[in-house]
Each structure stands twice: as C-alpha cells, then as structure tokens.
UniProtKB/TrEMBL annotation:
It comes from the Bacteria. This is Type II toxin-antitoxin system HicB family antitoxin.
C-alpha cells in the first residue's frame, strides 16, 4: 500500500480534485468518497498508459 497526495475542493454540489503528481487531470464526485474512488481509478488509468501524453510534476535539484 502507498500514499498518493491529492488536492480537492467543493464546488456547489460536486467535489473536484486531482492527483498532485498529475494536476492536468481532474475528476469529480458527488461526495468526497466518490471523488476518492474516481481519483484511484484515474491513477490506475494513468499508470496503465490508458491516458495519452501524460505530463508529470517532478523536482529539479539546482546547486
């Protein structure tokens, strides 16, 4: 089991969010629990190459 960070907010009746490593790909749910399930499904799709042209946030160490 692993931990994946995500960002979420409520917009009227929907909970909207994205995986912090993949901020370009948002999903939503009618409850926080549904949003979390949709984020898990999104992660599976991304990691199994179902989503083309993935852009990922990474860190650059500059001395």
């Amino acid at each position: 089991m692993r931990t994946v960070k995500f960002t979420s907010w409520q917009d009227d009746t929907f909970f909207i969010g994205f995986l912090n490593e993949y901020p370009d790909y948002q999903t939503q749910g009618t409850s926080k629990e549904e949003l979390i399930e949709n984020l898990k499904d999104l992660l599976i799709d991304i990691e199994s190459d179902q989503v083309p042209y993935i852009r990922k946030v990474e860190e650059l160490l500059v001395a």
